[in-house]
Amino acid sequence: MSSHRQFDVESVRQCFPLLAQQINGHPLVYLDNAATTQKPQAVLDALVAYYRNDNANVHRGVHALAERSTAAFESARQRVATFVNARSHREIVWTRGTTESINLVAHSFGGENLRPGDEILLSDMEHHSNIVPWQLVAQRTGAELRVVPVTPEGELDLDDFDRLLSERTRIVAMVHVSNALGTINPVEEICRRAHDAGAVVLLDGAQAAAHLPIDVQAIDCDFYAFSGHKMYAPTGIGVLYGRESLLDAMPPWQSGGEMIRTVSFDHTTFNELPYKFEAGTPNIAGAIGLRAAIDFIESLDRGALIAHEEHVRKLTESLLQQNENVRLIGTAANKTGVVSFLLDGAHPSDVGTLLDQQGVAVRTGHHCAMPLMERLGIPGTVRASFGMYNSEEEVHRLMDAITKAQSFL
Fold first, then answer.
1. Which residues are catalytic?
2. How far is residue 44's CA from residue 298's CA, in Å, rounded to a whole number?
3. What local confidence, expressed as pLDDT, does residue 12 receive?
4. CATH 3.40.640.10 residue window(s) in the chain
5. How far is residue 346's CA from residue 339's CA, in Å, rounded to a whole number?
6. Are 329 and 378 in contact (CB under 8 A)?
7. Which terminal residue of the chain has fewer beta carbons within 10 Å of its beta carbon, N or C?
8. In this structure, are residues 319 and 293 in contact, taking their beta carbons and an 8 Å threshold?
9. What is 44-298's CATH number, 3.20.20.70, 3.40.50.1220, 3.90.380.10, 3.40.640.10?
10. What does DSSP assign to residue 106?
11. How big, in percent rounded to 5, are the helix, strand and coil portions of the chain?
12. pLDDT attached to residue 268
């Protein structure tokens, strides 16, 4: 029996209350997980329990609620450290999400270390949030952006990576999994080659954390950024893993309360790691919700879950390829649960609207990856992206909806 059959998707679906609804008279088929995932009851319960029983600010009070809130908040940090195999909780910085994590590194590490003529190496498949922060810091410091192209299949061209990597490369910032194509990049190899050239590596893990085991020590990256809301946790909470020696040398990015040790009008001293990067009241409930999401993910058979998501993706691709009017975009050999496609003669947004009328939620457009779309010579795609609760039945619902949409186009 294949491993995807061992994953009880129907039991998992029962844990997600939002899925049990109808859209336009049809049962919801939610295939927009690369944008955000739905939340299991365990996460909803954790949020309610915190606000109902423990709500207080962290690190500042000696009363019982403050102590309980602080303990839960810091326990969540340690849980994340274990989840990504960080060496210490000091390497885990809370942010609002992947975007803020990348901005923190770009403006703090980049702003402190980049000089005119230095180079920042990106790829064609980056999300805008891993392009624009580097553009801004490059403009400020005189550094330059270099871009590794992707192949027509949507894979990183490692020969070009080696060609562009040089002694001038200070930072390599690349996506672990492409949000637009589902391509899984060879991140261990990227880090090895970058480090051999003397560069520091940041990985955008927004699309990877929910679908792949993450071991920052095995990958050997210097920074790793991801968001809670793409891995079944609340919105507004994110993580920056950073190598402790690098974080320790970096200046604060935002300033205010919590990130300080002493303040006078003449001088301020800053807090220890990781708190010097956490100005102001943090998203306490979000961190607690992220811990609950990690606990939920790891309560499942992770191998069976990965196999299930791969099976659903491959089934979708196989059925789409049987439709002569469909063109798949992104056919990398190593992928996770994203299927992007175009329907001949139809604008992606029109396809998305017709699918929504049948209860099928997909994403259309450039997916915040406009340079990638330009490289591929297309305006955008229809994107179906999968999570742990998507089933074979939903794949067939998608196919039926596409067939019906074709009859209107």
1. 368
2. 17
3. 98
4. 44-298
5. 17
6. yes
7. N
8. no
9. 3.40.640.10
10. I
11. 45, 20, 35
12. 76
Q: How far apart (Å, rounded) are the C-alpha atoms in residues 347 and 289?
A: 38
287's torsion region: left (phi>0), alpha (psi -120 to 50) or beta? alpha
Q: Is 326 helix (H, G, I), strand (E, B) or coil?
A: strand
263 Cβ contact list (under 8 Å, min separation 6): none
- Token pair for 102: 């990348």
**Omega within 30 of 0 (cis) for the link into 348:** no
> Tens-of-pLDDT digits for all 409 residues of the chain?
344 458 999 999 999 999 999 999 999 999 999 999 999 999 999 999 999 999 999 998 899 999 999 999 999 999 999 999 999 999 999 999 999 999 999 999 999 999 999 999 999 999 999 999 999 999 999 999 999 999 999 999 999 999 999 999 999 999 999 999 999 999 999 999 999 999 999 999 999 999 999 999 999 999 999 999 999 999 999 999 999 999 999 999 888 767 767 777 888 787 778 989 998 899 999 999 999 999 999 999 999 999 999 999 999 999 999 999 999 999 999 999 999 999 999 999 999 999 999 999 999 999 999 999 999 999 999 999 999 999 999 999 999 999 999 998 7
- 99-101-107 Cα angle (round to 5): 100
**Residue 119 DSSP class:** E
Q: Both tokens of residue 333?
A: 């050999």
CA distances from 182 to 133, 216, 313 (A): 23, 20, 10
Question: What are the angstrom distances between the C-alpha of 124 and each of 100, 187, 369?
Answer: 21, 15, 8
| Residue-wise burial string across 265-297, b where 16 or more C-beta atoms lie within 10 A, e elsewhere | eeeeebbebbbbbbbeebbbbbbbbbbbbbebb
